[in-house]
Amino acid sequence: MRVLFLAPQMPYPPHKGTSLRNFHLIRGAAAHHEVHLLTFAGSDLSSAGPLRDLCASIQTVPSPQRAFSRRLASFFLSSSPDLASRLSSAEFARKVGDILRSTMPEIVQVEGLELAPYFLGLPPSRHHPVVILDEHNAEYALQKRAFEVDRCTPRRWPAALYSLVQWQKLKRYEGMACRRANAVIAVSEEDKGALLRLDSGLDIAVVPNGVDCAYFQSQERRQSDATLVFTGTMDFRPNIDAVAWFAREVLPLVQKEAPEARFVIAGGGPTPTVRALAGASVEVTGFVPDVRPYLARAAVYVIPIRMGGGVRFKALEAMASGVPIVSTTVGVEGISVSGGQDLLLADDAPSFATAVLRLLSEHAPSENSGQALGRGMAERARRLVEQRYDWDRITPLLSDLYDRVSRAGMGRR
Length: 413
Fold this sequence. Notes:
alpha/beta, Rossmann fold, 15 helices
């Protein structure tokens, strides 16, 4: 089949969640189908790497720029969520139409709700291809959770107000977009449940996020190191909240018992809030081309996420690397892990600090270090991702969905 992927950014190099997922889904689809890609990016394709061989064609459009005044007006005056106009581009819409006429793909896979306007604007027709909307998050649920976290802190009430408004707008818009697609992809059973609460009649397939287990082979770590590591894109709101909460509320509790503990925040685009955390015991690296050296030096990998949704690549990468993990429940939502078996779970600052200290003490050299709690959990977590979350196990689910919608002869609603 001919498949057209619409992506919000060039899926290569795969340095963050959206591009990671899109690259591996394209790679999996290209093994059995003719893949075409339309994405926001510059015209120079030299950085597209293996995509040039995987895709029958790649077309790009410059990323649109929105003035703050227009975004503010939309917040107050539009019934649509902010996300619906984030990637508004007449050129992109024109190219979608051109590709539909010239290439005639059987399937259009839309990577993210922000690209929904490009199929919502097409008039219903039996000649249109099947549209599959890949929901990287249940977006309304993400904003709901952000509101619930931010409303507890007065200085963050403006952010809470933003999320409250977006949550209400997204409930209507996201439900409408999912209904207009022929099929919807969710990244977890939890996200599938959230989307079904918008409309119980939706056709939703679960295609989880994954990890390249061979790339993230576990490495020997320094047993006496007390380094706590977090990786991620550091201009992403859930990540900003996570590291700020950990550095301000959890790390001081850890250092009462382990004064040598230090926190490393590795990831691109750190905001002023994140940069302000840097100090004697907190390192903010900025962009790193390879997170594996940071995972290798971690005594404990921490996932202090309190808002957001989907399945977090950072958790899968740490599990594949064989690093002991402490996470909030939200931080590993959608991953089939067991607290106390594969990692430690904690949802408040004292409990989180206690769990980190427990692993730091287990991490220290001892005669029984081979049986240490952290090492045992890390080994079980590594086996789990090998068995269930390696990309080679996940991408066949996408082909199964293509076959199903093709057999059903589904045209666009």
